[in-house]
Amino acid sequence: SFHAFAKLLPKDGQLFINGEIDHYEDIIQDVDCEVFTYGIADPAYRKSDRTFDYAADNIDFDDMSDGSFDLYYKGRFVDRIQLDVLGLHNVSNSLPAIALSMQVGIPIETIKKTLKTFKNSKRRFEYKGSIKGVKIVDDYAHHPTAVTATLSAARAYPHNTLWCVFQPHTYSRTKQHLKEFAQALSLADKIVLSDIYASREKDPGDISSRDLARELELLGKEVYYFPSFDEIENFLLSHCMNGDLLITMGAGDIVSVGDSLLGL
pLDDT tens digits for 8-21? Predict the structure, then answer.
């Protein structure tokens, strides 16, 4: 368990832990080393009223280019941090890196410069471009947890309608997590589904994207299914409006939809 792992740290060690996770107190109970918590303190994004040793507040996302936030240590303002990656999850991910760096004595100016040079991985909330005022992002998310995280991050950006073009990945995963996928995808305003990406599997005949569409309809969502990418692209071209945010999502070849719309 995480608690057993934390107990392995020596007395002169340091443990950095996300103070937003459930039951984090159980993990750090009776540990011998110094403990530092980190988390999102901005009222617009925080999950609880907890306080953290290292906190991000006054978070701002500059269109689709980057994010910035005020860094606080034990309630005192440290500096304004600028990132060159998208998403609230990247703000959260930067905090333990900052905390560790500060604790070993790296100057904050060096930390800031280094963070600004960090680039996102391909297909991880990757901004692809825009067409007719519609911003297009691509993400590799293919599990309900990752879908939730990605769409939650997307909702932080200014937009009129949040579209998610989702390609379920493998029949077995879709069947096993059908209701969880529906709940995760419901964070989008409108959902467009393609056929399931089989990968290494054969079609068992007892699960399809239509099943996922029905689950989303039960949640009151506006959902569309098309068997071909051409149909999806034509639908999006005629329905997406200026100011909308469009995310292509999945571990298969759904990225080609956004690329085709952008002429890439």
Answer: 999 999 999 999 98
